[in-house]
Amino acid sequence: MRKDFLWGGATAANQCEGGYLEGGKGMGTVDVVPWGENRFPIMLGEMNYKDLPDDSYYPSREAIDMYHHYKEDIALFAEMGFKCYRFSLSWSRIFPTGEEDMPNEEGLKFYEEVIDELLKYNIEPVITICHFDVPLALADKYGSWKNRILIDCFVHYCDAIFRRFKGKVKYWITFNEINMLLHLPFMGAGILFEEGENINQVKYQAAHNELVASAMATRLAHEIDPECKVGCMLAAGNFYPYSCNPDDVWKAMEKDRDNYFFIDVQARGQYPAYAMKFFEREGITLNAEEEDYRILRENTVDYISFSYYSSRCATADPDILKKSTAGNVMKSIKNPYLKASDWGWQIDPLGLRITLNTLYDRYQKPLFIVENGLGAADFMEADGTVSDDYRIDYLREHIKAMMDAVDMDGVDLLGYTPWGCIDLVSASTGEMKKRYGFIYVDKDNEGNGTLKRSRKKSFYWYQKVIETNGASLE
């Protein structure tokens, strides 16, 4: 591995920060996503948050209260030896409604203190600008990313953070898992569907607006600080054909293209031919300005970041389609060659190497694994220890696959930041029980607990991995 490889961890404001109305923060879309049976209807954009029962529980509003614990948490990251820490900013903490002329100083100051705390320990900040988080006022007033006005709101937000943190932040990511817009429209982009709307038209118009905003942000970042690097991000993981039936191979290619579509534009600067034909077939007409296409063409990203948890299978056979795995936002056929996590995510370390090679072959840009990990129900023993050997096993095999992609295949990889390096609220289910971290946080699904932080067995294992630059994985 390169000597400057960025080992670290990753979180998101909406899953760990809390303090949802402190410091002048406005409401964000995630603040109205509940735990329980109504979670998926809300995330899918099929149910209006205004129709939720009064006793709904919103786990992101406190999360693990990193807003008040960040110094303690960063000290633990430093103890593990983190070279970088990927986290996100809450847009509504900086622009409470998204339309203010001037940013909320208290919000900027909070993030500046977080960044300074990281730099104190020589931890490189890697910042996601928009991680499933839109000011609720923009969703209510304009329909969120359905409306082009959000491009200007987003660029105004970017201008404020790029100028404030110039020289302190080198790595930026515009949108977290941008392709999630297609799968969880409200969670991914604040989109609520109205009766009678053409769903594909709405999704791809929102996608166009986000892609233009990302390109404009990339241009602005380079103008303000030529030393910084701006990346895109997708929820990755190849689709395998369920069989060698050409129909299955074709279906897998179509599924992969659904995900690559966004990155094709962000990395290559133009809409791919297959997407244009899809728009034509579906009767999708983008509300786009001629200038949009020049902006996309001239402002491609510097690197490609992605999350990887599992591979997936695709088939054209309707009978096999009934065997979808559970617990996965992107439904997949069960792969008979793979084991699965407690939440149905299929465990495929070699799939990470395949994904790395696929992305590098396709784009020839540096890659960055910014999410990878195992969600599991951890239990604390009476002596305060958490023996998460299953997580160590998962990460060990994925790191081996990652290193093979670099050392044997020649993939240019910037870093690796396992997801939820400290336990946090699950984005998909809203649970605390589904834990990913090296650090245990005392809190349950109903919001009860002391929030006390404790080191798991994996904490010490990952500390050794970083210390040896991946040489020691046992």
From TrEMBL:
Pfam family membership, one: Glyco_hydro_1
Entry annotated with the keyword Membrane: no
EC code(s) of this entry: 3.2.1.86
Keyword Transcription: no
Family under the similarity heading: Belongs to the glycosyl hydrolase 1 family.
Name the record gives this protein: 6-phospho-beta-glucosidase
Keywords for the protein's UniProt record, in alphabetical order: Glycosidase, Hydrolase
Cited InterPro entries: GH, GH_1_N_CS, Glyco_hydro_1, Glyco_hydro_1_AS
Active site feature: 371 (nucleophile)
A molecular function GO annotation: 6-phospho-beta-glucosidase activity
Organism name: Lacrimispora defluvii
